[in-house]
Amino acid sequence: MAEPVAPKNSSCLVYSFGISNDWTFDEDFARFGCEVHSFDPSIGKQDHLHAPRVNFHSVGLWGSDVIDSHGWKLERLSTIRKRLGHEQVKWFLL
Q1: Given this model, what pLDDT does residue 12 score?
Q2: By the 8 A CB rule, do 53 and 30 touch?
Q3: How far is it, in rounded angstroms, from Cα 11 to Cα 25?
Q4: Which of 37, 68, 70, 91 has an alpha carbon within 20 to 30 A of 43's alpha carbon?
Q5: pLDDT at 8
Q6: Contacts of 6 (CB under 8 A, 6+ apart)
Q7: What phi-psi label fits residue 43: left (phi over 0), alpha (psi between -120 and 50 degrees) or beta?
Q8: Where are the beta strands (DSSP E) in the chain?
Q9: Strand 48-51 to 35-39 pairing
Q10: Measuring CA to CA, which residue among 53, 58, 54, 87 is closest to residue 70?
Q11: How far apart are CA 91 and CA 68, in angstroms?
């Protein structure tokens, strides 16, 4: 990640949806000290800590909380934020 667009402090929170096994964006933000949560139910991985500060969740973003026809867990942003304890975070990067 280019230095001019890097986060200015290490208190940032990043949600990255639909990663499709490309961790570049997520790992770059983690290197700058951000807490990163990567989401993608389609890649067949269980929830895990991918790298320091990069947490993977086998969940997709949707307008309601459902399990779709593929068996993927999909949740509203408000549900995800509540489950992760981020309800009070005012600014975050999607």
Answers
A1: 87
A2: yes
A3: 17
A4: 91
A5: 60
A6: 32
A7: alpha
A8: 13-17, 35-39, 48-51, 54-57, 60-61, 66-67, 73-75
A9: unpaired
A10: 58
A11: 29
**Residue 6: per-residue pLDDT:** 56
pLDDT value at residue 79: 97
Q: How many CB atoms are located within 10 Å of the residue 31 CB?
A: 15
Euclidean distance between CA atoms 15 and 83, whole angstroms? 13
How far apart (Å, rounded) are the C-alpha atoms in residues 42 and 79?
A: 19
AA letter at 11? S
Place of tokens 């790298």: 51
The CB density around residue 78, as the number of other CB atoms within 10 Å, is 10
Q: Are strands 54-57 and 35-39 parallel, antiparallel or unpaired?
A: parallel
Helix ranges (H only) for 2-87 are 24-31, 77-83
